[in-house]
Amino acid sequence: MVELSGFNGLLLSNIAAIFVAVVMARAAVHKLQDPSFEGTLADYQLLPERLVPRAVPLLAGAEVVAALGLCVLATRPFAAALAAALLVIYAGAMAINLLRGRREIDCGCGGPGDVISWALVARNAALLVILLPALIGVPADSIDMALGVAGILVTAVSVALLFLALVLFESVATRSAAIALRLPARR
User: Which of 7, 110, 128, 157 is deepest in the core (most CB within 10 A)?
Assistant: First the structure.
């Protein structure tokens, strides 16, 4: 098995894990707070109607478990695998509907009301790549190195910058999809 080692390896794993944890937590909060999410999930037309109400808390619960697990080094590889599976499922659901010609579906991602697009499928693929260091694992002797103030500060700043980049990407993707569909862009 490939392992990341030393301070840099653990720092990279921390940044990847915490960033994806923030993305998962944001998506879970959206699903739990938005009463219309059940309709969004139904719009994908991938589940039998009777399963949609049961799927909403399962998806949100899985996102919460992934987000929390990514923050704990001992559970990180398992949580990273769960987060990766969710990202693949979501990208697959969007791709299936895009291939069906169904482009006016809200993605349900927790972002600014994005309609599905190939850009959002690519975003999920990019999140999978970002998640790789968290999937690989970190040897136990590296743990103490990243617990210092510098490691925490670098992780926090890196996660904030990555999150800002994600929000910017989503804004561009939303505007591009709106232009392609000739819909007014949401602000």
Answer: 110
